[in-house]
Amino acid sequence: MSTSGWALLCAFSTLIGFVLPRRRQGRHRDSGGPPDEATFVTLHIAAMAAPSLRAGLTRDSARKAVRHLRTLLGTSALALADADEVLAWDGAAGCHRDDAPEHARTALATARPHVVAGDAFPCDRPGCAIRGGVVVPLTVDGRVVGALAAYDAVVSAALVRTVTEVARWVSSQLELAELDSSRRRAMEAEMRALRAQMSPHFVYNALTTIASLVRTDPERARELLVDFADLNRYALRRARDFTTLAEELHCVDRYLLLERARFGERLRFTVRAAPEVLSVPVPFLCLQPLVENAVKHGVAGAGRRGEVRVVVRDAGPEAHISVEDDGLGMPPERARGLLDGDPRQGRDEGGFGLANVDVRLRQIYGEDYGLVVETAPDEGTTVRLRVPKAPPW
């Protein structure tokens, strides 16, 4: 189990230990069911709040989460604040909402739980049930990013402990949100690097080939120029995480047509795909780098006629894809180095693209979905990947 996963499990265990007694003793009592039913209710409420918090601490996420958090604690009112303002309030006694920013600022400044009660919490409104509150800072990676403030008729030691543990759990969700954001930024950076990698290896040779045909076969040059524009329009359009297999195969087809114009009869290729999987969502630009690697090693590297085959099969809940060439192949340890992104294994020869696709697949689908490379010297190379038909979102 990862460190973050273990920390979250510990937070849940502690959270249940504090919240269950609180919910049994508070005004919102359980219906008298067995303890496991109360545990289920607590976990269910926490699960309802978690998706909003995983979006980070924003006005929208706070508004969606605050009601569930107040239900979890069973207090009269609850507020969520960031470093600048109160983002959301839920519960009765709106007269105290204007006091919440000052309470939050105290907790943010001291980075410690803050209790307001007695003379520090005056109220002259008839019938107001709130007589105090507990304000606990929310932290992400050691930084105070906000505060959770719970208000009720009595501020007991049990309430302080309970709100502190709920704040710890909220902080763990916000840390996971930060990790999600960092992962998205890393994937966007990898996408930009992948696009930059594609152009230097390909654009010069494609344009040189087209230029050589302008006088001898202008119609063919025009067709190839349209293919080149189509391919680059696809590769350079506004970034998206996913496309369909049909669009990705269309990109591969345009790439192979341009390479066929360059290599002539030295390059043969086939692209076969089961119709049932053409609409399956796949990571953007996940196949073209594999095909580019196959062309370089299967044709350019061998210096003789070679064949590249792209096959997409329907495999029940998954689509199975293979990119094969009959070129020189390589020792298995070199293939492992390419997947690991080892610069000593020759990123300029296509290894960068293989490592990039492998990392992206594992990040999106899990460690079981990386590339599988089958190769040996003089035996060609086959790169296999699997993608679930169901989208990962």
Automatic annotation (TrEMBL):
InterPro entries (alphabetical): Bact_2-comp_sensor_kinase, GAF, GAF-like_dom_sf, HATPase_C_sf, HATPase_dom, His_kinase_dom, Sig_transdc_His_kin_internal
PROSITE patterns the UniProt entry points to: HIS_KIN (PS50109)
UniProt keyword terms in alphabetical order: Kinase, Transferase
GO molecular function: kinase activity
SMART domains cross-referenced by the UniProt entry: HATPase_c
Gene3D superfamilies: 3.30.450.40, Histidine kinase-like ATPase, C-terminal domain
Name of the protein in its database record: Histidine kinase
Species of provenance: Streptosporangium fragile
